[in-house]
Specification:
With 592 residues, the protein is of the alpha/beta class. The protein contains 20 helices and 21 strands. The protein binds cobalamin (B12) and iron/sulfur cluster. Cobalamin binds next to helix 2, helix 3, strand 3, strand 4 and helix 5.
Length: 592
């Protein structure tokens, strides 16, 4: 669903509101000895370029943020389980501190959602008297919360409640539950009493079902769009979340203790870090501006420096990936952060000597920052991912042209920052064109010549929550099945052609592989090794190695799909999949 925008001026929480909620939960925590398990769903079939390393070697920020919030409010009996590392984890067998947890939370992206539902189904094997309250969240929940509820009597497995939002929404829900909970009562029972009393309706950002507790959902209640946290310095410190991670294992159960601090770096050498949220552009295929209700939210420079330093001190982490939508979105605010990182010093050591960071930006804004790139490198930045999409701006215009894209790439390379282009292949773009910049290979070649260190080429797929989503379906572009194989969520990652008007969509699929093959191959690896005495040093060669290994996976996983696209019948959808149960807005809470 496209996230409804709150009334203008009412998009953000009042300053200090999250901090006050944290305080109030800390007072409730001692009387409520909660045990919580937060699981991150992951489908291993999605492992390929361009995400092959970061997908499993960087603990996702979402589950860490939720874990940090729980620990910060005094609920230290919390464990984070990553499907990435614990494939056999079975919620029906989990025990924390010798007991079935009070809360079982599941976080998922859209493409891993069936794995999340498997976990929910499994957790519901626990007998109702002991069963934890099941809470779902994450980006799938942000855009398609209704998918966590079932109306099917043969499979009535649903989450109890879905959080369509961030820390504040979850903590507000907890505050309501704990103030309802009687001595010795389970959180699940308190939840249902609070629901029936209408006490959840005053917490914007929730979806829950009406009807019997273990029955199929009859109707869903949406409590409205969340208010967003404006000042991200109010967030709990990310250092807390890393203390809660389940060590990798092949067990179905949980281990006796969380991953030791000294081993975090070994399994997760890169650390994602929330720095800013929001982007001023409004690309029709992207849900990010609506999610952020057109707000640009950020942490202060000193806070970011402190987070990097403490994560380094406690866990030895040095490589940080900003989860920014567009880090250069606002020039002055960016420069304030960069300045603080350049100046930050801890225990007599300049932070910039220790940490290296990377993030996402747009070509347009990088051009505006071109004179500051050496300073940005000084602050520790070593690579920037740029949404180039199609250099000629045929697909989408956000200030890019071949001339300015290439200038940005050269400037970055000269400053010693690796330019990492993210391209989007589309129906009207040929593989190669003679005498123009339009072809996919033509553009890849130009980008490589200008210093591109890695390559991401994805096919446009419908993104839930975006303005273009509905139309992509109603115009008949989206496939339902190809050669008898249904289009499952895990192939919605842009690596598979699943929406196209092209007469021969298999060509699009092959084009993606050819573009990668053109960029990642032994010849370029040798050249990158030969030219290692540039400011980018060995990074292009290292990326070639990762790229070549990743490409083997792409070929293995998507070649069969090309064959289906070439020979199999293609069935198309004419409507987007939506809620199977009616949704109604919550009643406004009665005034006291
Ligand atoms: C970093 C990132 C990645 C990294 C992830 C690496 C890692 N291991 O962490 C990489 C580069 C690998 C990646 C890959 C992809 N990504 Co990505 N990525 C992001 C990005 C930029 C930041 C995610 C993040 O860490 N955010 C910060 C955390 C704190 O926010 P959060 O995860 O939303 O969590 C908050 C809330 O959602 C909530 N929450 C989260 N979980 C839970 C659980 C519970 C129980 C509760 C109560 C609350 C809750 O609380 C959290 C704190 O506020 C987001 C965009 C964005 N700005 O969020 C896209 C995003 C998550 N990616 C997206 C997509 C689609 C992809 C890809 C499919 C590529 C593509 N086609 O674009 C691949 C999938 C690869 C794979 N195999 O999984 C989409 C997901 C859309 C969806 N419907 O699920 C997003 C939202 C971007 C977008 N809007 O298009 N991505
Ligand atoms: S520039 Fe990137 S983040 Fe911003 S709206 Fe476009 S695709 Fe989304």
């Amino acid at each position: 669903m496209q996230i409804p925008r709150r009334t203008r001026g009412d998009e953000l929480l009042a300053p200090g509101q999250l901090a006050r909620l944290r305080e109030s939960l800390r007072l409730l925590a001692p009387a409520n000895d909660l045990a919580t398990v937060i699981a991150c769903a992951f489908d291993h079939r999605t492992r390929m370029l361009p995400f092959i390393y970061t997908d499993t070697r960087m603990v996702p920020a979402g589950v860490r943020a939720i874990g940090s919030a729980m620990a910060d409010c005094g609920f230290a009996k919390t464990r984070i389980v990553l499907h990435q590392w614990n494939r056999q984890f079975s919620p029906s067998r989990m025990r924390l501190d010798g007991r079935v947890p009070d809360l079982f939370m599941v976080s998922t992206m859209g493409m891993h959602w069936p794995r999340a539902m498997d976990m929910i189904r499994d957790a519901r094997q626990i007998d109702p008297a002991n069963r934890p309250l099941i809470v779902a969240g994450g980006s799938k929940a942000a855009y398609e919360p209704y998918d966590f509820f079932s109306a099917d009597p043969a499979d009535p497995n649903s989450a109890d409640v879905v959080v369509i939002g961030e820390e504040f929404v979850l903590l507000s829900l907890l505050e309501v539950l704990l103030s309802f909970r009687l001595a010795g009562e389970s959180t699940r029972s308190a939840f249902y009493r609070a629901r029936d009393a209408g006490a959840l309706d005053g917490v914007p950002g929730l979806m829950y079902a009406r009807g019997g507790r273990d029955m199929p959902a009859e109707e869903l209640v949406f409590t409205g769009t969340q208010r967003l946290l404006g000042d991200l310095d109010e967030l709990p410190h990310p250092v807390l979340g890393y203390r809660l991670i389940e060590p990798p294992s092949r067990r179905a159960t949980l281990g006796p203790a969380a991953l030791d601090a000294s081993r975090v770096r070994r399994y997760s050498p890169a650390s994602s870090l929330v720095v800013t949220f929001g982007c001023k552009f409004t690309c029709p295929y992207c849900p990010i501006p609506d999610y952020n209700q057109r707000q640009h939210r950020l942490k202060s420079g000193p806070r970011i420096a402190d987070e990097m330093w403490r994560l380094h001190k406690e866990y030895g982490l040095r490589y940080f990936f900003g989860t920014d939508d567009n880090f250069f979105n606002d020039k002055q605010r960016t420069l304030d952060i960069v300045d603080a990182l350049v100046r930050a010093e801890f225990d007599g050591t300049p932070l910039r000597r220790i940490v290296r960071w990377y993030t996402e930006v747009t070509v347009h804004d990088t051009l505006r920052m071109k004179d500051h790139l050496p300073l940005i490198r000084d602050a520790g930045c070593r690579a920037l991912w740029l949404g180039v999409e199609d250099m000629t701006a045929t697909l989408i215009k956000k200030g890019q042209s071949p001339a300015n894209t290439l200038e940005v790439f050269r400037r970055l390379r000269d400053a010693g920052i690796c330019p990492m282009p993210m391209m989007m292949h589309h129906d009207s773009q040929p593989l190669y064109t003679r005498g123009s910049d339009y072809g996919l290979i033509n553009q890849v070649r130009q980008l490589r010549r200008s210093g591109a260190t890695s390559l991401q080429v994805l096919m446009l797929v419908p993104s839930p929550g975006s303005r273009l989503y509905e139309e992509t379906y109603t115009s008949g572009q989206v496939f339902e099945s190809v050669g008898g194989r249904p289009v499952e969520p895990h192939i919605h990652d842009g690596n598979y052609v699943i929406a196209s008007r092209h007469k021969q969509p298999w060509r699009k699929q092959i084009n993606l592989l050819l573009a990668y093959l053109y960029f990642y191959n032994p010849l370029w690896l040798v050249l990158a090794l030969w030219r290692r005495k540039t400011k980018l040093q060995l990074k292009p060669a290292a990326m070639q190695v990762v790229g070549i290994l990743g490409l083997i996976q792409n070929i293995r996983r998507t070649l069969g799909w090309s064959i289906r696209l070439a020979f199999g019948p293609i069935r198309r959808l004419t409507r987007p999949p939506g809620a199977k149960v009616p949704i109604r807005p919550a009643e406004p809470p009665a005034s006291p």
